[in-house]
Design brief:
- By secondary structure, the protein is α+β, with helices and mostly antiparallel strands.
- The protein folds into four domains: 169 residues, Porin chaperone SurA, peptide-binding domain (Triger factor/SurA peptide-binding fold, Orthogonal Bundle), CATH 1.10.4030; 132 residues, no CATH class; 121 residues; 106 residues, Chitinase A, domain 3 (Roll), CATH 3.10.50.
- It contains 26 helices and 17 strands.
- β8 and β9 form a beta hairpin.
- α3 runs parallel beside α20.
Length: 644
């Protein structure tokens, strides 16, 4: 993230520009923030609620980070109900650990904070060749997160304290070799097996149900052949983009802002210099500093006599290892980037000049000014598009914050129509037909938003045709809707779903036949093993599942191996039935065990530690009464399992 900021300095300058817009905008934004904080509680930790808006914002931030790091990822994966629920679980975890840290009075010392910041590679990259931190770039870096350096450091301090909650347990997890080996041997146990498969598809292909059978199945399973409830709706969308289109920024405002900020927005004069440094830190003795200064005076006389030799002299003698290899070159820098004595000398020189010996806290410098890049003041016409876009955005934020309350109140106070508030706020009343409680394929925007659809199909909306409340469906987006025409769920006519009825009937009967014959064969083959018709023997283990269904693998490895061969029947659901014969245990390869033993034990210790961490975290959840108030989404499955 920090690298992105450094590569997009202009964007960061625009962001800083946004922050300086008059404070009247901030009042509106703060008002809207207060409105957002009134959202419904979706979880609770230690008596503190996590609201729906907080959840939405956290998920949006997660999605933005994921899309930035993996642009090719399918957006549907990020916007799924499962992904969003994962964000809520993370929020709860963060709150639980924060509560544990606070109750345990865990703190972070200044020394620990300093060490963490020094070890942060993104911050380390901001250091100058002389080792000092470029504070301006540091402020830009943390400012990109909406923080001051003090706020950022407070956040890091808090994060370190929170990490201590789990770190003590994580660092003490271990498993003895005896326990690890016993568990690993069981986990990696291999068995030679043979299979008899009774696949649903094989039996279903032979079935030809009559019309009477189809009619009977249809009547006894009417719930499987229903059309979902649907509605034709009207809805309004209030969002920042829509508000922005209505904003007109007077040219006089643009010119005023340009005149007040032209110098700052146009950048600063930059200078390029090379230097030769003889180290003499402030902690050095007077004699050591005098010796260093004398050496610097000798080198100064040398480069004064032959200015073109400056780079060679710097390479051989400068004690600034970062710049010496480049002939002392420090590249371009603006005011504030160097320590004061160095800056004062550099900005007082003419191009090509060589300074006298300059003393700083790092030692003695000889400076050669190699180039000057004057600040170019951009004209009003050049900057007008940027100024207009940013001022329009800020005014839109302010107007949206004001309008959000009017929108929320309006759809509630005149609940039998959306037209009054639409006319008042100059919004378009949109319509949609055949809207279902769950998003239909191809739906997008608010019509794919579960919160909005749940509100549309709430009893009050369905029975009384009232407006929904204002629903926040995205950051800076509110939606309200109402049902115009409602069609309840209904059973579809047999003629319309006859093919589906046939598919389900033959699949159901095929699975029953497969299970019945499979169970019969299991009993027969147990009594007469020689009569069994089985597959070729194969070696099966948890890490070598041979592409078999998990139910078969699990049954084969759980079968009682005290008396072999062992026979077991496996119901694989819609796919049919399987008979498994376990012939023998297959020892693991000794060479493979020896080669991976250390790694396997280490992996087992990690699993054990993870289990301990999870158990401890669950204990903390109970202690701080963590509760998620929304149901966990269930992954959707097809009507029938794939036949293996």
């Amino acid at each position: 993230m920090f690298d992105f900021i450094r590569r997009h300095i202009k964007a960061m300058q625009l962001m800083l520009f946004v922050l300086i817009v008059p404070s009247f905008a901030l009042f509106g934004i703060d008002g809207y923030n207060r409105f957002r904080q009134q959202g419904e509680a979706v979880a609770e930790v230690d008596g503190q609620a996590i609201t729906q808006p907080e959840w939405d914002d956290a998920h949006k931030n997660d999605v933005d980070r994921m899309r930035a790091s993996m642009p090719s990822m399918d957006p549907k994966m990020l916007d799924s109900a499962e992904a969003k629920y994962g964000t809520l679980e993370r929020l709860v975890r963060d709150r639980v650990l924060a509560a544990a840290s606070e109750h345990s009075k865990l703190t972070t010392s200044d020394q620990r904070l300093a060490r963490d910041l020094q070890e942060n590679p993104s911050i380390a990259a901001l250091r100058r060749p002389d080792g000092s931190l470029d504070m301006e770039r540091y402020r830009q870096l943390v400012g990109s997160q909406g923080l001051t350096p003090e706020m950022f450091e407070a956040r890091v301090r808090n994060d370190i304290a929170v990490q201590q909650v789990m770190k003590g347990l994580a660092n003490t997890g271990f498993a003895s070799n005896t326990v690890a080996d016993a568990a690993l041997n069981a986990y990696f146990e291999r068995r030679e097996v043979q299979l008899g498969r009774f696949n649903t598809a094989d039996y279903a292909a032979k079935l030809q149900p009559t019309d009477a059978e189809l009619d009977a199945y249809y009547k006894s399973n009417a719930a499987l052949f229903q059309a979902p409830e649907q509605a034709n709706i009207e809805y309004l969308v209030l969002d920042l983009d829509g508000v922005k289109k209505s904003i007109v920024v007077p040219e006089a405002d643009l010119k005023t802002y340009y005149e007040q900020n032209a110098a700052r927005l146009s950048g600063q004069e930059e200078r390029r210099a090379s230097h030769i440094l003889i180290n003499a830190p402030a902690s050095a003795s007077a004699a050591e500093r005098q010796k260093a200064k004398a050496r610097a005076e000798e080198l100064l006389a040398q480069v004064k006599k032959s200015p073109e030799s400056f780079a060679d002299v710097a390479k051989k003698n400068s004690q600034d290892s970062g710049s010496a290899v480049n002939g002392g070159d420090l590249d371009f820098f603006a005011r504030g980037a160097m320590v004061k004595p160095f800056e004062a000398a550099a900005f007082a020189m003419q191009k090509g000049d060589i300074s006298a010996v300059v003393e700083t806290e790092f030692g003695y410098h000889i400076i050669r000014l190699t180039d000057i890049k004057l600040a170019k003041q951009r004209s009003f016409e050049e900057m007008k598009p940027e100024l207009e876009a940013d001022l329009k955005k800020q005014k839109a934020q302010s107007k949206f914050a004001e309008t959000a309350e009017a929108f929320t109140n309006g759809v509630y106070e005149q609940a039998d129509s959306l037209k009054p508030i639409a006319e008042r706020l100059k919004l378009d009343v949109k319509t949609a037909s055949n809207v279902a409680r769950s998003p239909v394929p191809g739906a997008n925007g608010v019509l794919a938003n579960p919160k909005f659809l749940n509100a549309i199909f709430s009893p009050d909306s369905v029975d009384k045709k009232r407006n929904t409340q204002a629903i926040e469906t995205a950051s800076n987006q509110l939606v309200a809707g109402r049902i115009v025409q409602y069609s309840p769920a209904r059973t579809l006519p047999l003629a319309e779903v006859k093919d589906r009825v046939r598919e389900r009937l033959v699949a159901s009967r095929g699975a029953d036949m497969a299970r019945s014959e499979g169970a019969a064969k299991l009993a027969e083959w147990k009594a007469k093993p020689a009569a069994a018709t089985l597959s070729e023997a194969m070696v099966l283990s948890r890490d070598q599942a041979q592409k078999l269904p998990a139910a078969i693998v699990d049954a084969a490895l759980r079968a009682d191996a005290s008396a072999l061969p062992a026979w077991v029947g496996v119901d694989v659901g819609a796919a049919g039935y399987a008979v498994v014969k376990v012939n023998k245990l297959v020892p693991r390869d000794a060479a493979a065990i020896a080669g991976s033993l250390k790694q396997d034990r280490s992996q087992y210790a990690q699993w054990w530690t993870t289990a301990e961490n999870l158990a401890y975290y669950n204990t903390l959840k109970e202690r701080f009464k963590a509760k998620i108030k929304v149901p966990k989404p269930v992954a959707k499955k097809g009507d029938e399992a794939q036949v293996q």
